UniProtKB/TrEMBL annotation:
Protein name: alcohol dehydrogenase (NADP(+))
Record family assignment: Belongs to the zinc-containing alcohol dehydrogenase family.
Reactions listed under catalytic activity: a primary alcohol + NADP(+) = an aldehyde + NADPH + H(+)
EC number: 1.1.1.2
Residue ranges the record marks as coiled coil: none
Pfam families, sorted: ADH_N (PF08240), ADH_zinc_N (PF00107)
Cofactor(s) demanded: Zn(2+)
Keywords, ordered alphabetically: Metal-binding, Oxidoreductase, Zinc
SUPFAM superfamilies reported in the protein's UniProt record: GroES-like, NAD(P)-binding Rossmann-fold domains
Annotated GO MF terms: alcohol dehydrogenase (NADP+) activity; zinc ion binding
């Protein structure tokens, strides 16, 4: 076993504590990665909130990180020591099912191995995430980080980015598409940047009027305050695609009513069960869908697009020792627009 240091849930609170961690010895197709930067995703808060310390599974969050390869197993072909890499929220899959064969490892029928809180397919151990100084990953699930991208600001692309990239891409968003992004947070601000770079007519729907200037700076043409029922009603049927990134349970009705005939609401927040009035779908033949993470080919395509269009996250970079402050502020919606932890304070 190799040892490293990371930030682990302490079991009695939602605080993280600096802890020595074990990483597996390299398998033939593994990379050892020095984690330099790891984004703080709202899913990390959900995971901490539902973590059961008595279940015996340690929790080290972090599933969007960039770093540098420090070691390679003997069968590794795509990377060498010193290469800049990026890792997202899945680190393995069965490789044989129709989803994996179609390059949608994120939908693997045997369930993909999650970067943290997952179960390793070979030794059954619980995966520990990127809030740590080292990660060991199968080379197939590491992506070369394009040199044009700043490694700190690129880290959030690997979860927040791909999660909104895949629906925008598969829904055919491009010039002329009217897109609205609900919730201007980590996922939302990247969805805006992508939609704008794809040439779409892009708007933001937010409960925070103070984000209007930022929305414009990000390239959005419209800004709708979701708590203003009159303005929401006036925007009925206005958008071909609505990407809903809101992190808390909410009624989908008002957002479905903004969708144009035959348009789509793609809801990507982790909300659990939701209730939908089928009349909100019937009137206008609207579609309700979701998405999560991305397959390996789409992740590679997104990174290429980001390098070409200079898309990265707007980040606030903090030393990893301030992780609890970052989580607390994210909980209070006090981030513009993604915290990234600098892991260089860990050894
Ligand atoms: N499907 C996937 O694979 C996947 C991947 C990553 C994340 N997620 C999930 O996606 C959601 C968003 O993640 P994130 O990291 O972007 O979170 P985030 O940075 O906290 O952004 C969420 C945004 O939602 C809005 N919001 C928050 N609470 C709200 C409330 N009570 N009512 C209305 N709006 C509210 C806020 O935007 P405004 O201030 O603009 O209203 C906030 O900035 C989370 O549930 C996360 O777990 C899913
Ligand atoms: Zn995430
Ligand atoms: Zn599979």
């Amino acid at each position: 076993m190799r040892t490293t240091t990371g930030w682990q849930a302490d079991g009695t609170t939602t605080e993280l504590r600096r802890t020595r961690l074990e990483r597996r010895d390299l398998r033939p197709d593994d990379l050892a990665v020095r984690v330099d930067y790891c984004g703080v995703c709202h899913s990390d808060l959900h995971a901490l909130g539902s973590h059961d310390p008595d279940a015996g599974r340690p929790l080290v969050p972090g599933h969007e990180f960039t770093g540098v390869v420090t070691g390679t197993g003997p069968a590794v072909t795509r990377f060498s020591a010193g290469d800049a890499v990026a890792v997202g929220n899945i680190v393995d899959s069965c490789g044989a099912c129709p989803m994996c064969r179609a390059g949608q490892e994120n939908f693997c029928h045997a369930f993909p191995t999650l970067t943290y809180g997952g179960t390793d397919r070979h030794d059954g151990s619980t995966t520990l995430g990127g809030y740590s100084r080292e990660y060991v990953v199968h080379e197939a699930f590491a992506h070369p980080l394009p040199a044009a991208l700043d490694p700190a600001a690129a880290a959030p692309l690997l979860c927040a980015g791909v999660t909104v990239w895949e629906p925008l891409h598969t829904l055919g968003v491009g010039p002329g598409t009217r897109v609205a992004v609900a919730g201007l947070g980590g996922l939302g601000h990247l969805a805006v940047k992508f939609a704008v770079a794809l040439g779409a007519d892009t708007s933001v729907i937010s409960r925070s009027p103070g984000k209007a200037d930022d929305a414009r700076r990000l390239g959005a043409h419209g800004f709708l305050v979701s708590t203003d029922p009159d303005r929401m009603a006036a925007a009925r049927d206005r958008f071909d695609v609505v990407i809903d990134t809101i992190s808390a349970p909410h009624d989908l009705g008002p957002y479905l009513r903004l969708v144009a005939m035959d348009g789509t609401l793609s809801q990507v927040g982790h909300l659990g069960p939701v209730t939908v009035d089928t009349m909100d779908l019937l009137v206008g033949r609207k579609k309700l869908t979701s998405a999560g993470s991305a397959g390996l080919p789409a992740t590679a395509a997104m990174l290429e697009f980001c390098a070409e269009h200079a898309v990265t996250a707007d980040i606030e970079l903090l030393p990893s020792a301030r992780v609890n402050e970052a989580l607390d502020r994210l909980r209070r919606n006090d981030v513009r627009y993604r915290f990234v932890l600098d892991m260089s304070d860990l050894t």
